[in-house]
Amino acid sequence: MIEELKNTFDKFNKKISIKDKIVHTRLDNFNAFAKIGFPGKSLEDWKFSNFNKIISKFKNIRVNLEEKIELEFNNFITEFEHNKIVFVNGFYNKHSFEYENEDKIVFDFLKNGPAYKASGNNSLNLLNNAFFTDGLLLNVKEGYSFQKPLIVYNVFKANKNNNFFNHKLIINVEKNANLELVNNNINLNSEPIFLNTSNFFHVEKYAVLKLFQINHLNNQDLNYNLNDATVLENGVFENFILTCNNEFFKNDVFCFLKENYSSGFINGCILANNNEEHEIKTFTKHIGESTKSYQKVKSVLDKNSKSIFQGKIYVDSHAQKTDGYQLSKAIILDQNSEFDSKPELEIYADDVKCSHGSTSGNLDENAIFYLMSRGLSRSDARKLLIKGFLEDVIETITSEKIKKYFSKRLSILLNEYR
Amino acid sequence: MLKINNLSAKIENKQILNGLNLNVKAGEIHAIMGPNGSGKSTLANILSGKKGYEISGSITYQDKDLFKLEIEERAHNGLFLAFQYPLEIPGVNTSNFLKTSLNAIRKSNGKKELDALEFLKIIKLKAAELKIDEKILNRQLNVGFSGGEKKKNEILQMSLYEPNMVILDETDSGLDIDALKIVANGVNSLRDKKRSFLIITHYQRLLDYIKPDFVHVLMQGKIAKTGCSDLALELEKAGYEKI
Ligand SMILES: Nc1ncnc2c1ncn2[C@@H]1O[C@H](COP(=O)(O)OP(=O)(O)O)[C@@H](O)[C@H]1O
Ligand SMILES: [Mg+2]
Q1: Phi then psi for A218, rounded to 5 degrees?
Q2: Which residue's alpha carbon is at the smallest distance from atom 17 of ligand 1?
Q3: Alpha-carbon distances of B138 from A373, B113, B133, rounded to whole Å
């Protein structure tokens, strides 16, 4: 498979890279990837997944080389006003920052470079560095707060020759600046895609970045998403992830609380159904003093599906007065679904407050009886209980409009449940 | 209204009800008293349709075979149970829940569903009538409610759904006198010729405020004695041993 991918890569690199330097850097990344291969079960970070088996179903990995595609995407979220950027099949399509002062924003698209150095051993990130077609480079200038959220629409219309997409967001929020960013992946076709994204965020002093992730993908799609955030003094990184309808969806979130009083919140709702496998993996590194981190992930599993939560909290010896909280819960609706939870605390400071917990179980029959005795059908009673279970995570969203949107989206998704 | 004929129930091979007979006519209030563990809640649960019991005998409710009705159909047909231990439902807003359930009942009866505004008007009125603090409406259903608040919430539901057959399972237990009056008021204001009540209680205290037509003593899985409201006073003095 990797052999074949190499041929694809050579053609791709020739076409997309405009400078020698970029050609070489992309090649370095590919070679580094090829050395490791797709992540295997022997890697600690991947021990709950059989990614090689999952990717092997993807017989025909093809990269999009055609930039132009006839598609006028206008199916925007209507629940709240927002700025937008549309990428179609991995390439920039259009944008509108109609609510913003454009002097306070610097942005560019990644198609013409730069390239990103091959480093680390995350093979999917290396693969992304080799293959990314485009992406957003955004800098929010000092003291500027976005008036409305920015939604990145990642729209795909795949076919057999065009099903592997690599995308990037490189975002810097300067001192005292504010951004609410929504990433919305949409697959318009039923042809399965493999979406591989690597996102890097830099949150400067007193800045706030809120990142929300929505997916409108299909249940044969594979999706690996890397979020890597570095947070400076008093900065806040807030990440909320709702997973649904992907055959495989792994979210790898790194949060480096580099300076004092910085904080990172990573919360998620996992809805895995029909043989799907979804994961949220977090790694929070407390480096500065008085830093705070919070992870709350709740899963609802049905029909032979699987959810994984791996949450690592590392507290450096300098990171006194760290405040860490982690909770992972699952409702398992059938006999064949599986929930794997691996909390991991590595603490080298002594003045630290860290708690974590994990539970799983089925819906409470007595609660179902109570609700049914009030006239609700069994199915409605179950849905209400599931919604209530997840609502607790939705509540962590600090933006009212977006909280409302997710709550509504959840109700729509739960309509399909028994 | 409700006719229970030779009802027996077992759970995990333990006989709990053993040939119970009871006939509640429209407009009547029946009180059931009995020692702890005598099967009062079991009877209430079976009437509401809880699964898990091995049952024999028959129950007709409004001339229908009750066992043929699903749990929610019993609610749709106007059967209401105020739980002895109302469940806490995290993440579910009380007001939303009340609206959803009321609309489910209305819909099944061919009535128009209420929109948010119409509902709010009704629920606020009901809460005010019963002197129940509106604040509970915006909290998660029964979550962190005191015992009294949970019971008041059950009474609020009762008055909202306007059921035909009300079963109160020890709704008075653990209530102070003010809360007790709220419960009694709720019942008395619904009391009419067409509506029946089955009031399970441990103390005759509640019956000072709600005058039952009959008082039954449940022991050894059946009605051991039936009398008028004086029987409750007797029991209070002499205990159940004498029965
Ligand atoms: N799910 C159950 N499994 C086993 N025994 C039960 C169960 N529910 C009730 N019982 C038993 O049945 C008896 C009657 O219980 P209950 O109806 O709750 O009594 P009451 O409401 O009169 O106090 C008790 O002895 C109780 O322990
Ligand atoms: Mg009881």
Answers
A1: -110, 170
A2: B39
A3: 21, 21, 11
Q: Which of B8, B17, B42 to mutate to test the pocket of ligand 1 (most atoms within 8 A of CB)?
A: B42
SS (H, E, C) A205-247: CCCEEEEEEEEECCCCCEEEEEEEEEECCCCEEEEEEEECCCC
**Which positions ≥6 away from B126 have C-beta within 8 Å?**
B132, B156, B159, B160
Residues in chain A with CB shorter than 8 Å from the CB of B105 are 374-375
Extents of the domains making up chain B: 71-174
| Run of H or E including B168 | strand B165-169
Mean pLDDT over all residues of chain A? Answer: 95
The alpha carbon of residue B212 is apart from the nearest alpha carbon of chain A, in Å, by: 25
- Nearest residue by C-alpha to atom 5 in ligand 1: B11
Q: Which residue has the tokens 């037509």?
A: B213
pLDDT digits (tens, 9 = 90+) for B226-237: 998 888 888 888
Contacts of B75 in chain A (CB under 8 A): 372-375
**Residue A233 near residue A262 (C-beta atoms within 8 A):** yes
* CA B36 to ligand 1 centroid distance, Å: 9
Mean pLDDT of all residues in B177-185: 92
Task: Specify the DSSP class assigned to residue A43.
Answer: S
Query: Is the CATH number 3.90.1300.10 carried by domain B71-174?
Result: no
Instruction: For ligand 1, say whether the CB of B45 is within 6 Å of any of its atoms.
Output: no
Burial of A219 (0-12, 13-18, 19+ CB in 10 A): middle
Single out the residue of A108, A84, A79 nearest to residue A97, CA to CA. A84
What pTM value is reported for the model?
0.94
Q: How far apart are CA B42 and CA B153, in angstroms?
A: 22
Contact criterion met (CB < 8 Å) for A371 and B101:
yes
What are the chain A neighbours of B140 within 8 Å (beta carbons)? 388
- Residue B63: CB partners within 8 Å, gap ≥ 6? none
**B215 Cα to the center of ligand 2, angstroms:** 17
A395 Cα to chain B: minimum distance (Å): 9
Q: Quick one: which of B96, B93, B136, B134 has its CA closest to B115?
A: B96
* CA-based nearest residue to B242, from B223, B221, B224, B216: B224
Mean pLDDT to the nearest integer, A227-256: 97
Query: Does the interface predicted TM-score (ipTM) exceed 0.90?
Result: yes
